[in-house]
Write a structure and sequence with these properties.
Distance between the termini: 44 Å
Radius of gyration: 15 Å
Helix content: under 10%
């Protein structure tokens, strides 16, 4: 817990598959720019919060993002900086409010069969412009994409897309997308 809080780690941080858990506040305010998690790591609340240089995250391999694990990944002093792109891959579980108030987030990529994305996973991420589906989501919360102004929705795996069920129009990102591209 708080192990690397405010440390001077810069650049890319790769979490090895052998890492079972990233405790609360572990990398709070660390100046890393890119994060890669490729394994069944559990990421606890506020583990990467206030990482103002973190612009890209790639998560796969059965990782589980607990509630508020990436809360406030932004730069309050610089509105042009902060988390821009998230790639969520195979077997990842994203709990409620995992990316709460990541105000600079503009791109979400679902790559492979994502296990689940809970309601409010992207609460108050109002600047999301592009969502790409290179796979599907097994379990999708009903308001995951609510209040997003999606400019572009890319569906690159039509078969996987058609296997998803949306229990309401609020659950379907097509409801909010200005342009939809099906490859």
């Amino acid at each position: 817990k708080n192990q690397f809080q405010g440390c001077h780690l810069t650049g890319e941080l790769q979490i090895p598959e052998s890492c079972e858990r990233i405790k609360s506040g572990a990398f709070l305010k660390a100046p890393i720019s890119k994060l890669i998690i490729n394994g069944p790591t559990i990421v606890e609340e506020m583990a990467f919060s206030f990482c103002t240089n973190l612009s890209e995250i790639s998560i796969s391999g059965g990782a589980k993002l607990l509630e508020e694990s990436f809360k406030y990944v932004m730069d309050v002093d610089n509105p042009n900086a902060g988390l821009e792109t998230i790639t969520i891959g195979k077997d990842v579980i994203v709990e409620k409010n995992a990316f709460y108030y990541c105000t600079h987030l503009t791109n979400i990529i679902f790559d492979g069969r994502v296990a689940s994305v809970d309601n409010g996973a992207f609460s108050d991420c109002k600047n999301i412009k592009n969502i790409t589906f290179n796979g599907s989501i097994s379990k999708l919360g009903r308001d995951v994409f609510d209040n997003m102004a999606i400019h572009r929705l890319d569906v690159n795996d039509l078969q996987s897309w058609c296997s998803m069920s949306f229990n309401s129009t609020k659950a379907n990102p097509m409801t909010y997308a200005k342009d939809i591209y099906i490859n």
